[in-house]
Write a structure and sequence with these properties.
Order of helices and strands of chain B: EEHHHHHEEH
Low-confidence stretches of chain B: none
Structural class of chain B: mainly alpha
Strand content of chain A: under 5%
Radius of gyration of chain B: 22 Å
Number of helices of chain A: 3
Distance between the termini of chain A: 11 Å
Number of helices of chain B: 6
Mean pLDDT of chain A: 87
Helix content of chain A: over 70%
Structural class of chain A: mainly alpha
Number of strands of chain A: 0
Number of strands of chain B: 4
Shape of chain A: rod-shaped
Low-confidence stretches of chain A: none
Strand order of the largest sheet of chain B: 1-2
Distance between the termini of chain B: 53 Å
Oligomer: heterodimer
Order of helices and strands of chain A: HHH
């Protein structure tokens, strides 16, 4: 019974953790939109803009990746099950 | 569904120091090292001043690409970094692309990415100490005001951790999603009665074609972009560590 509760709550927690995916989604979309704007204004700076955008997008993605790692730990390497 | 939720399988155990476990990742990594060695020997054999063969042109294109990237990002003073960056790029791209032939991607193991991130961290610290001196390096943690000390320490530790987690998360996320999709499509084809059994092989019709589309994004695009980003971040961090006054 205890195990079932812990497992169920862990699954809910993993799902809740992935809500953090909203943030990077919005941020990356904004960054890419701005990059396209600047490329449309100055097509000759395309290479620089794209390279910088990729670095920025990768940085913005970190928070989403952290949430994903938390979800993975909750699902596959649950630390709470060992405490029962 | 067996491959998710578990780390890489242990292939064999070396019976010294109480048994050192050699995992899939290490075996695949050594396989890639041997493959890259043979490939570079083949690409650079019989070099001419004016290239005659296609393979020499390919090798020169790759070397030029790395040299130009390092020169543009770090400046001409850091050209000695080009081989290290080329190593990171080749190893990371091939380590992610082995999933195309059905092996476990090497970068889906946190040990691999953490090792690379720690190598970068050592380089960053070395260049910070080299430019500022050891006293200046210690003092930079208390800048601009001593109250910031815990935050500065945290951000120093977060740099290698976030680099390692980013690469690991992307590749293993793709692996988990692809494996889940395979499982779902397998049940779907058993539900629709389109799964056959040919001796030891199970053929599920729904499992064909659809995972290939996802594989283009998760294996090809994500693997190459993450390798490029890891190399670029290494260059940016190291050159900014050397610039600090």
């Amino acid at each position: 019974m205890e195990k079932a509760i812990v497992l169920g709550c862990s699954a809910i927690g993993a799902g809740l953790a992935m809500i953090a995916g909203i943030g990077p989604g919005i941020g990356e979309g904004y960054a890419v939109g701005k990059t396209i704007e600047s490329i449309a204004r100055q097509p000759e700076a395309k290479g620089d803009c794209t390279r910088t955008m990729f670095i920025g997008v990768a940085m913005a993605e970190s928070t989403g990746i952290y949430a994903f790692v938390v979800a993975l730990i909750l699902m596959f390497a649950n630390p709470f099950l060992k405490k029962l | 569904m067996d491959s998710i939720g578990q780390g890489p399988k242990v292939v064999f155990t070396i019976p010294i120091f109480g048994g050192i476990e050699v995992t899939e990742t290490i075996v695949i990594g050594w396989g890639i090292i041997v493959a890259v060695l043979l490939l570079s020997l083949w690409l650079t054999s019989d070099l001419k001043k004016i290239p005659e063969k296609k393979r020499q042109i390919v090798a020169e294109m790759f070397v030029d690409f790395v040299n130009n990237t390092v020169k543009n990002t770090m400046g001409p003073a850091f050209m000695s970094f080009a081989p290290y960056i080329a190593m990171l790029l080749v190893y990371a791209v091939l380590g992610a692309l082995v999933s195309l032939i059905g092996l476990r991607p090497m970068t889906a193991d946190f040990n691999t990415t953490l090792t690379w991130a720690l190598m970068t961290f050592v380089l960053i610290t070395y260049f910070k100490i080299k430019t500022n001196g050891f006293g200046g390096y210690l003092k930079s943690f208390a800048a601009p005001i001593p109250v910031m000390l815990p935050l500065n320490l945290l951000s120093e530790v977060a740099t290698p951790l976030s680099m390692a987690f980013r690469m690991f998360g992307n590749v293993s996320g793709g692996m988990v999603i692809t494996t889940l999709l395979y499982g779902a499509l397998g049940s779907l084809s058993r539900l629709l009665h389109v799964s056959f059994s040919l001796g030891v092989f199970d053929i599920n019709l729904a499992q064909m074609f659809i995972p290939a589309m996802l594989s283009i994004y998760f294996d090809l695009f994500s693997g190459c972009i993450q390798a490029y980003i890891f190399a670029t971040l290494t260059m940016v961090y190291v050159s900014s560590a050397a610039e600090e006054s």
